[in-house]
Amino acid sequence: MIAGNYNRISRFALKAGLASCGLTVLKLVAFRPLPPPLSAAPRRSASRLNGASRNSTGRRRTMAGETIPNTRIPILRSVPSLRSWRRPYMVNQRIVGLVPTMGALHKGHISLIRQAARECHEVVISIYVNPAQFGIKEDLASYPVTFDSDVAELARLDRELVDDGGNLGHISAVFAPTTADMYPSGFPGQEVDSTGSFVTITPVSNILEGASRPTFFRGVATVCMKLFNAVQPDRAYFGQKDVQQAVVIRKMERDFLLPTEIVIGPTMREQDGLALSSRNVYLGTRRRAVATVLSSALQAAEKAYASGKTATSAILGAANQVASRELQDQLALKPKERALFEVDYLALSDPETMEEVEAADPSKGAILTGAIRMLQVQDPQEGEDLGHSGGPLVRLIDNIILQPR
């Protein structure tokens, strides 16, 4: 987030010439030797469960510590316990993959875990809601925390991965640290002018998403650096939906000479085109029906480019028309029926820098990005599904990579 079997990026992204912005897979020289060719992932022995006991949550505690119920997958709560777990795999030259998450797992996360299991012997899932990537007025307090259902889904998925002979590995550990573990000197705060130990990747962190959320990429880069240092993964897996985040992490990997290969998986979508996101649970029925306006707008812009248009005004004009038409349709409805939204931005960016451009370069393509704010519903009705936590304002992002032509 490699030539041969390690390249999981789509061909159109490769053709887009995205090497320097981080959307193609780089070929890195690992600091740790690679293992021999593919081998079957070891199955966990049921006999190793002897002597296990359950805590109040139903999760097992063994001599090795807490585990997911009915599995031997350890839940590692501290950096020392993680490093103790990690050490033998360095000696045995096992490929370790990391899938960083904030929980509230969905099909996008599952897709990344499946990809990691195909390519790595041991897969670590981190579940940590990182406060540093939330602004002071953002949804940290209401962010969905679904740890028990998340680990239950991981247990189910792991059984499937182990039974599938086509995988190199399986889910080997869950890393679920506290903020005290991740910020041992104390959490420095969410304000823009907070002082503390941060990783900042500029100028890419200051534009588009970074302009709307000035502390977001600082928080993302900082927590990813911490996770990379703690887990020491050979590979780390991220989704293309957060395309600017992928660019930031790849630049961090390159600029700080990190021995971790960054792999980007494709955006996963609902059948109607909505990009999967943990924040979709906030939408509720009314807003969910309108939330596809962002993907529809970007698709209209993509069609404009495919038809031969290259000027940003023409390409984004098609997207703006879709958004404007949908907003007018909603305003024509009664307050108890409508779902209103605001367009944060629609942008056409250079694939190497994420800087906005006046025209797409057909020789290398471009990146379409957008963000909208789904406003709280007006005149909510008794019994109406407003979404998680009462349906607060929801900010949705999406992107489409335009192929060279």
TrEMBL record:
Pathway: Cofactor biosynthesis; (R)-pantothenate biosynthesis; (R)-pantothenate from (R)-pantoate and beta-alanine: step 1/1. Its EC number is 6.3.2.1. Keywords: ATP-binding, Ligase, Nucleotide-binding, Pantothenate biosynthesis. It catalyses: (R)-pantoate + beta-alanine + ATP = (R)-pantothenate + AMP + diphosphate + H(+). InterPro entries: Cyt_trans-like, Pantoate_ligase, Pantoate_ligase_C, Rossmann-like_a/b/a_fold. One of its GO terms (biological process) is pantothenate biosynthetic process. Residues 40-67 are annotated as: Disordered. One of its GO terms (molecular function) is pantoate-beta-alanine ligase activity. It is an enzyme of class 6 (ligase). Gene3D superfamilies: HUPs, Pantoate-beta-alanine ligase, C-terminal domain. The keyword ATP-binding applies. Residues 40-49 have a biased composition (Low complexity). Belongs to the pantothenate synthetase family. NCBIfam families: cyt_tran_rel, panC. This is Pantoate--beta-alanine ligase.
